[in-house]
Structure formats: structure tokens, C-alpha cells
Amino acid sequence: MKKKNMRLKGQLRLYMQWPLIMMVFLWAMDIWMYQLDKKSGVIMSVFIVIYMIVAGTLYFYNRSLILADLIQFSTQYQGIQNTLLKELALPYAILQENGHILWGNDSFKSIIFNQKREKDINKIIPDLDVKAFSSKNTDHMEVEVTFRDREYQVELQKVSVEGFSEEESVLQIPPEAEYFIALYMRDVTELKSYIKKNEEQRMIAGLIYIDNYEEVMESVEEVRQSLLVALIDRKINKYIGDVDGLVKKLEKDKYFFVMKVEGYRKIEQDRFTILEEVKHVNIGNARSATLSIGVGLNAPTYAQSYNNARVAIDLALARGGDQAVIKNLTGITYFGGKKEQTAKNTRVKARVKAEALREFIMGKDQVIVMGHQIADADCFGACMGIYRATVSLGKKAHIVINEVSSSIRPLYDEIAHSSAYEKDLFLTSDEALSYVSDNTMVIVVDTNKPQLTECPELLKKSKTIAVLDHHRQSSNVIENAVLSYVEPYSSSASEMIAEVLQYIVDDIKCPSIEADCLYAGIMIDTRNFMNRTGVRTFEAAAYLRRCGADITRVRKMFRDDMDSYRAKAEAVRRAQVYREEYAIAQCPNNIDSPTVLAAQAANELLDIGGIKASFVFTIYEGRTFLSCRSIDEVNVQIIAEKLGGGGHINAAGAQFEGTDVEAAMGMLKATIDLMIEEGDI
């Protein structure tokens, strides 16, 4: 019965039906012949009958033979196909949704040869999570796994079970299963090895600058200067030569080098020890030489690698030097920069920047000045200094302040209520946006990070932006600035602006209240001239004193009230000492300007013997703020950078979004542990 019910389909069936089709045509022709000649029609009818008998006999006789041959061919083809699949060089397996192995070819079995009894692919190859793939709304996935010291690229493909016979003799599919998973494995160990070797052979470019060449040369006898330079050259050439690199001296204090990526990996592991080695070169020089290094990594072309190296060296210099900056496609990495650089006594750079700033201001109708969020005394003083410079040049100026903290409230109120100033001197962010035009210049002070400014949208709307700041730069800076004066050596932004004022306009007249603002900024950032104070700091203070700054009034302005003093004392009392050297505390937030109080508490903790650095947390407007302080033993700036902040070597800070104080403290402790382990602090 089964043979009788078997039917041919498709083109083969059509081919077998050609005799029947020919009969239809022959009978049609016979009818036509009858109409022409009856005798001819009879003869043709006899011929057609004979043809029908012969064709019918052959059709029904050969049909069974053809079906038998087809079945035999199908069986042989299936056997060949199964043999080829079984002996395929590519490891192949069929899995259930849960990772259970249903079938695998010889290549697959050879990979897991001693785990044949184990049927769960998730246990055989732990890196391969088939269950996770089954839960995803996708039919295809490629992953890379490591198994027995070999690397494989695994391709998973969902295959529906619809159409598979329940009586399948080779593979039995569970009736509840909707699909099975086809697994392909490609051994890419050698390919990856060659790719890695090729990457290791790629050349990268770098630049090395001697930060303080002139100062070092001046500190040694003239007859010994050439020897000092030769020793530094030898150190640099040997260090790069040890990793199969090449160094070319461009100028007296600048070097260009190329090396392979594998060479860079070696100096990365030793964390650029050349930075410390050069400092130890001493033949009687009073100052030690320091280096800045910029490296362009993972660039697609050598030209791009060199350009990245130039960007990196500029960033290293802007951060104060004595460090290596690595710029690659994914971001920027810093090494060194643990100690504060000595400030330069010359004010040539301040004069050059002042002249450039004057040219930009003269070309605009108005200037909008803004600092960082929650402005402190230094930020406010710098804003007032730029305001005075702009007004002295005959231009209109505005200052963006969204929130007036208690630390600047006395100065702000006195200026806001004075008839000597315009009513629209102080603007909020929304008001400032309506003032911007194509002929407006925006000057940012006391910060170089766009997200920390009072109005980041203002930077997008303005075409002319200048930045004046004393914080070390990070990878996230205001990029479209036409003028960038970032001086990490300065004690404060107010000190920088006080210097600029002396050069931007001849015989500029600075009112006493504005001189008070600038003086207060210097005093607060230097902690009453005890931190980060250099010759230029006192020169700037002397200039402001000549302008009429009242130091007694400034001191009275910054006295704490009783509640603030108690809160600060409570923070100091409850401080915990971590690793016997780091003071960590939390400042109450039920007072005005808790961030300012946290900074003051951090300074107070430094007066305790044995404390190398202090960290004080506080909560303000739903965010957790961190103030970091040190004297000279710990670089708190690199700690703050690890936490997403920044600042100075001995005064830095960070902010945490959606993180409570306990979690932030845990992050700080983990960062300190990691940096101590790696030797960064």
C-alpha cells in the first residue's frame, strides 16, 4: 500500500507525464486528419492506439524502477552527506536550548575528547553561556571563548524543529522543543597570535620635553652645563634604546622618539621610571630636571600617532609637567605628576596672554564671564577682575551666577546694591543665554571643564571663548576656546587675573571692593598664604593692596558663625583615620554652604600630626561632594581624578551623582588601596 501511495512531485513528475501530453496532441492531429482525409485519419488512429499501448506499458513498468533508483540515490546521498558532516574539519554540534549536547561531529569530539561523558556544553566550556543565548531575542550570536589554552570563535544559530520527522532515526528532538541550537567552532589561536604580533610590531611616536631646562641650566656652573645636558641625553637615549626605540633630539630641550608597541608595553609596566631617573641627575645643580612625555598610541597611521603625541605633550605641560600622558583611541592615561612643580618667576606668559585677551575683547561688543558651579571666593574674585578689565576697555560685561553661597554673600551683596554697577551685572544661566549674540565673548575662569561651568549651554552658543584657570587639565576640557591660559603653578585664579590686569590696560584703576574680591580669592585658596604660595603670589597681593584692598575687612568677611564652627568641629571630631595616614570625615549638611565648610574641615584635619591627606564628604542639593587636601606628601589631585574629579596636587575635589556618603567613602578607600598597591601614592 505504501508503494502504491507514493507519488512523484516537481519537475520529475512533469517529465514522466510527457507521453500523456503527447497523446493529447496526437488525438487532436487525428481529428484534423479525419477532416482532410478519412482514410488517413483511420490509419493515424491505429498508430495512436499502438503508441498508447506501448507508452502505457513502458510508463507503468519503468515507474517502479525509477522510484527504486530514486530511493537508492537518496539513501546513498544521505549517507554521503552524513559522512561529510561527520568528518567535517570544522567542529560542529547540535544542542538543546539548555546546552545539552545532542550530536557532535568528529572534529567537535576531538576537542572535548576526555569529556565525552559530560553532555552539558556550559560545563565543558564555562566561558560559553548557551542558556543566556537561548533567553535572548536573537537567532544568531558570535562569541570568543578560551578552552584548553586555545582560542575559539563560536557561532550559535537557532534552528527551528518544524519539518523534522518524529521518526527521525539519527536525531531525536524532544516534542516540547521549538528549536535546537547549531554550534560552530573556529580555532583562531594562530590568527590572533599573528594579529597580536603584528600589533606589537606597529610603530608609535612620542615626544619628550625637559620642563625646566632654563632654570636647571641657570642653577649650575656654565662650564658644567654641557656635562649636565650630556647626562640627561644619555639617560633618555638609554631608556628608549633598551626597548629597541630610536631617539632624535629636535632642540636643546625637546626629543622625538619612535618605538614598537611591545617596547611601549615594557615602559608602561615600569610606569615610566625615566621620570624619576632624570631627577637624580645631579652634578651640583640646585634644581632637578623634570620631563614631560607625550605618546600617541593605537593610531591608524603614523602621522596620526604623531599628532596624538603632540596633543598628549601639550596636556602634560598644561598639567604642570613631570608626567607622561598617553593618548589613544579610547581615552587618555596619566603617569607621574606626583609632586608640585616649582612656579616660574617670569611673568612673560601673563603679559602675552593679557595682550591676546585684550585683542579679543576689543573685537566684541560685550563679554559674559562665568566660573564654576557654587562659586567660591576665588571664582568670584576672578570674575570681578575680568569685569574690571572689560569695562576698562570700554566694553559691556556681565557675570553669570546662579547661586550665591554664604562664602561670597557679603561681597556679592555690596556690589549688587551699589549704584556704581549696572543692574544687569549679575545674570542667571537663563538670562545669560538671551544675551548671547555673534558679537559676544564668553570668558571662563577658575575651571576648564565644560560640565562644571555655571552654564554649559553658553559654551555651545558662543563662537569666541577664553579660558583662564589654575587647575590642572584633564582629558575633558573646553575644546573650542580661542584663548586658553591654564597655569597650574598659580596659587589661584585671582592671582592670575591680578597679573593680567597689570598688562591688559595701562594704569588701570581697580576699585577697592574689586581688589577685596581678588585678595579674598588668593587668601582663601592659599589658606591665608600658607599653601601654594610663591613669589608671584605675594607680588599679586601687593598690587591689590596698592589698589586699596582692605585685608582686615576681608578677614572679617570670612569669619564663621557659631553653627558653622560647631559643624566643622563635629566633622573633625568624628573623623576616622584610614591606613594610619588618611583622615576621612563627613561634614553635616544642615548649614549654609556645606561644601565650603567641608573644605575648611579638610584643612583643619591637616593640622593633626601624622595625617598626610584629608578627605571630607558632604551632601548638597542631592549630590555627594568630596573635598581633598594635603600638604606635600600625597598628590590628592590624582586621587580625585580617579573618582571623576580633579584640582591641584594638594587641593582637589569630586562629585558623586546618585551615590550616598557611605558608598562614596567605599569608593575612596578602594581607590586609595589600589593606588598604594600600584605605587601611585
List the topology elements:
Elements: H1 2-5, H2 10-16, H3 18-36, H4 38-86, E1 92-95, E2 101-104, H5 106-111, H6 121-124, H7 130-135, E3 140-147, E4 150-160, E5 179-187, H8 189-200, E6 203-210, H9 213-218, H10 222-241, E7 246-251, E8 254-260, H11 261-269, H12 274-279, E9 291-296, H13 302-318, E10 323-327, E11 332-336, H14 348-362, E12 366-370, H15 377-392, E13 396-400, H16 409-416, E14 426-427, H17 429-435, E15 440-445, H18 456-461, E16 464-469, E17 483-486, H19 493-504, H20 512-525, H21 535-546, H22 551-557, H23 562-573, E18 576-578, E19 582-586, H24 594-605, E20 613-620, E21 623-630, H25 636-642, E22 646-647, E23 651-656, H26 661-678
Parallel strand pairs: 9-10, 12-13, 12-15, 13-14, 15-16, 16-17, 19-20
Antiparallel strand pairs: 1-2, 1-5, 3-4, 4-5, 6-8, 6-9, 7-8, 10-11, 18-19, 20-21, 21-23, 22-23
Helix pairs in contact: 3-4, 14-19, 15-19, 15-20, 19-20, 19-21, 20-21, 20-22, 23-24
Summary, kept brief:
With 681 residues, this protein is an alpha/beta fold.
Structural descriptors:
single chain; 681 residues; alpha/beta; six-stranded mixed β-sheet; 23 strands; elongated
> Structural class given helices, strands, pairing?
alpha/beta
Overall spatial form: elongated
Give the integer mean of the pLDDT values: 83
- Helix share bin: 40-55%
Low-pLDDT parts are: 164-171
Number of helices: 26
Number of strands: 23
Query: Main beta sheet: strand number and arrangement?
Result: 6 strands, mixed
Strand percentage, roughly?
15-25%
Q: How widely separated are the two ends?
A: 89 Å
What spatial order of strands do you see in the largest sheet? 7-8-6-9-10-11
Radius of gyration: 41 Å
